[in-house]
Q: What sequence folds into this?
């Protein structure tokens, strides 16, 4: 099922010996955004990406957080058709901190701050990985 797998780093191997296998191609979030804006579309069928650093980018956004989140969502949504059509393309978005979902979807950014991810990923589904590991899933269309 193609889409974004939103995963806490602690759910990945080797941090969790029974955890989710991390994808081999590692890329920073800003690099991923730059690649998505390229023509022609840069990813080939079967591409397995591991994207890191989104939570740090959002923390750095400060007062412009809503603008940055909307910009990210727009780029991801604009390339959804290409990502869906690349057979077997799968993107892991890795978070160093805990992901939470209730009436909102967020990553914890310290004990006093939550960074909402709803503007970017909507309301992703909570899924079970191998041996009880959890992750969230959002389709490329981000609906």
A:
């Amino acid at each position: 099922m193609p889409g974004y797998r939103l995963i806490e780093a602690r759910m990945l191997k080797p941090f969790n010996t029974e955890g989710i296998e991390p994808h081999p191609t590692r890329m920073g979030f800003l690099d991923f955004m730059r690649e998505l804006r390229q023509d022609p579309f840069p990813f080939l069928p079967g591409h397995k990406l591991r994207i890191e650093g989104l939570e740090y980018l959002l923390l750095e956004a400060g007062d412009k957080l809503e603008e940055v989140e909307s910009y990210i969502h727009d780029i991801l949504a604009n390339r959804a058709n290409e990502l869906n059509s690349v057979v077997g393309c799968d993107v892991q978005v890795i978070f160093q901190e805990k992901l939470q979902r209730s009436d909102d979807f967020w990553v914890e950014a310290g004990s006093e701050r939550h960074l909402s991810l709803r503007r970017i990923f909507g309301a992703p589904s909570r899924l079970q990985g191998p041996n009880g590991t959890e992750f969230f899933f959002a389709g490329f269309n981000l609906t």
About this structure: The chain has a mean pLDDT of 90. The chain has five helices and nine strands.
